[in-house]
Write a structure and sequence with these properties.
Length: about 325
């Protein structure tokens, strides 16, 4: 089936349920809090995406002659204990946040969560029971404990795999770029990120699978794949948009927590968790509080922005408003 066939209904088939339109953006634009939240998210994520071009310095560049320097023209946010530019570290840490959050949401929340939720809700029976019991098992296990086990047992193996990939492909710098750590962190987060999304999508599909447009599609011979992705998926778009928005904020906080525990992104690769960990301690807080406060404020603002945007989307997409 081509993309054109998937988007255009076959002759005689019912039309799919409408998805959110650009009117939603106009509604968001009338809410100052939502606009401010979007602005913060865009600035942080855009800085992360453009880090190689907009960062004044490399995240490893040190100046031992100017540790803990205050704000200046050369270093607008000052420097840390090694003389590294704080603004550059924040920008490169934003890139880590973009990579981890986007990869975790795409693989765990969207690919696994949405697909398994659609299948579970529509097919039902033993397959539904199997998927939901698997979700219960993942939900019951303490996430941090399992992530600790995964990190302790798989980190060296993942690094070795990436070294072998470098040898086979001739592509250098994969290990030194921190790719194994990124893969391990977002892979571990994806293992748990699908559970909530799958349950959410399943509940919506259960309420829609006996709807007239779905029954009509079956009678007209539409395939299961077409019914799932052409007719049932659009009914879940509102829920998915809100869930993804809220999940992005949760992933940001989780990455910081994992790094704090020593199982996230490791130095010298930058992340907000690394910056907060390096700036923690009573001595640093008293003498050089900006080392901790700068990354902490960025993380707090980002998480708050995702939550505020999620609340605004929930309100605007509520069936009662429509």
């Amino acid at each position: 089936m081509t993309q054109m066939e998937a988007s255009v209904p076959a002759p005689g088939e019912p039309e799919a349920v409408a998805t959110p339109s650009f009117g939603l953006l106009r509604e968001l634009a009338r809410r100052p809090v939502a606009v401010a939240a979007i602005a913060i998210i865009v600035v942080v994520y855009l800085a992360g995406i453009l880090a190689p071009w907009v960062s004044p310095y490399s995240f490893t560049e040190t100046d031992f002659g100017h540790p803990f320097a205050g704000p200046s023209l050369d270093h607008p946010l000052g420097t840390d204990r090694l003389g590294r530019d704080m603004l550059s570290r924040v920008i490169w840490s934003a890139q880590t946040t973009v990579i981890i959050s986007a990869a975790a949401i795409l693989t765990g929340g969207l690919v696994l969560g949405v697909t398994l939720g659609l299948i579970s809700g529509y097919v039902g029976g033993r397959l539904d029971n199997l998927i939901m019991r698997l979700a219960d098992a993942f939900y019951a296990v303490p996430t941090i404990l399992l992530l600790l086990i995964i990190s302790a047992t798989l980190r060296d193996k993942v690094v070795e795999v990436f070294r072998e990939v470098e040898e086979w492909t001739g592509i250098g710098g994969l290990v030194s770029s921190g790719a194994p750590e990124y893969f391990l962190v977002f892979g571990a987060l994806s293992l748990f990120g699908w559970v909530g999304m799958a349950r959410l999508v399943r509940s919506q599909v259960l309420s829609q699978r006996e709807s007239e447009f779905v029954l009509a599609a079956r009678l007209l011979g539409a395939s299961t794949r077409r019914i799932l992705f052409r007719y049932l998926l659009p009914t879940t778009i509102n829920l998915i948009v809100v869930a993804v928005t809220l999940s992005l904020g949760a992933v940001v906080g989780t990455e910081v927590a994992l790094t704090w525990l020593g199982i996230g992104i490791q130095p010298p690769h930058p992340s907000f968790g690394v910056m907060i960990f390096e700036g923690s301690g009573l001595t640093n807080l008293r003498a050089h509080s900006q080392i901790l406060l700068i990354p902490a404020v960025v993380v707090a603002a980002l998480m708050l922005s995702f939550n505020l945007l999620g609340d605004a989307l929930t309100d605007l997409m509520s069936p009662r408003r429509r």
